[in-house]
């Protein structure tokens, strides 16, 4: 049976002293703002009836590492001797997507260099017969080193995602005696529900606004070209291509290393981000060519339409790694729906536009009601504005005022897309711990009045 080097974590012995994290920081000369290893605490408020434990995690160098599979720039590689998953900083373009797809929150963005960075398994020490610095510095023996069999399953503990990707870690089960801590003093910290505010969001509209604009612009271009293909208003190929190029430049502006943006298309076989880039390039190029030449057969235009909607589907797929509380698999802010709506609006097809708008409205209202029930902050004014632009926009379309219809519909779609980015959450060990605590009935009893 094949084995591979592995971290062994015994949560029964971990005291949360952070010696492992400090050793990692010193050994790799890391700033305090860029930790490779973190120690998370489950039930730090000592809620009675709920176990108290600490979990030390870094990169788990998974057998089927999603960071490696989804990196559009192919900046990841695997060390054959140790199985370590390593980042080549000279190839990384700093898109941060690997941090989104990692269920353990391992990759971190280095603001100074504009690239991603993470635990390297102390691979050089391993090559010399040594062990990672975090392991050798653990004072209680909670973090040790060993071999993991290929088919060995990780124990289910709060904060650890069972993603089925073969992480190189073994976690010893929590002993029954550790499961029911006694409360000797009242909690010194705020109620646990407020702890979620301490978790830094990996995706925010403030940081990703360029992507929000780009994705709505992509849907707009797909919609307007589809309408043209159906016999709509003439388009100027120069304006069309110029807007597309401006959108792609805008989307590249959030990269840490913008000069390497061309590398985003290098992982077409596995990365949805690469597929998005290649597809939109193909759509813009072919659509502009059809508009410019004007003499190409009709099927060329329909191929461009197909590429356009495939682009929008790929964009939506990129964000599938995130979760939105209160939302099902369909979201009113998905750009595939936006593209369909705008195609119908640009073409003046009231029946189709009305049907798509109705679906989007139901999805929007249902999600907001569910999020309100979960106690998630929502802006009533923004909600009314989004619903109002959709209703009034469809009404104006009925009265055949194209420019006002488009202005209202696009405004509403931008609001919805902005909310989409604000609602996106990337699961991390800390957020998973709070999810687990929230699911425990005994955790609610103590703070019923909060």
Description:
It is a single chain. With 450 residues, the protein is mainly alpha-helical. The chain is built from 15 helices and 9 strands. Strands 8-1-9 form a 3-stranded mixed β-sheet. A two-stranded antiparallel sheet has the order 2-3. Strands 4-5 form a two-stranded antiparallel ribbon. The longest helix is centred in the middle third of the chain and has 25 residues. The protein is globular, with a radius of gyration of 25 Å.
**Helix count?**
15
How many extended strands? 9
Query: On the 0-100 scale, what is the average pLDDT?
Result: 90
Q: What's the helix-strand series?
A: EHEEHEEHEEHHEEHHHHHHHHHH
Spatial extent as radius of gyration: 25 Å
Low-confidence stretches: none
Q: At the first level of CATH, what is the class of the largest domain?
A: Mainly Alpha
CATH topology annotation of the largest domain: Formate dehydrogenase/DMSO reductase fold
Looking at the chains present, what oligomeric state does this protein adopt?
Answer: single chain
CATH superfamily of the largest domain: Formate dehydrogenase/DMSO reductase domain
Separation of termini? 53 Å
Share in β-strands? 5-15%
Question: Helical proportion?
Answer: 40-55%
Q: What strand line-up does the widest sheet have?
A: 8-1-9
Morphology: globular
Structural class by secondary-structure content: mainly alpha
How many domains make up the coordinates? 2
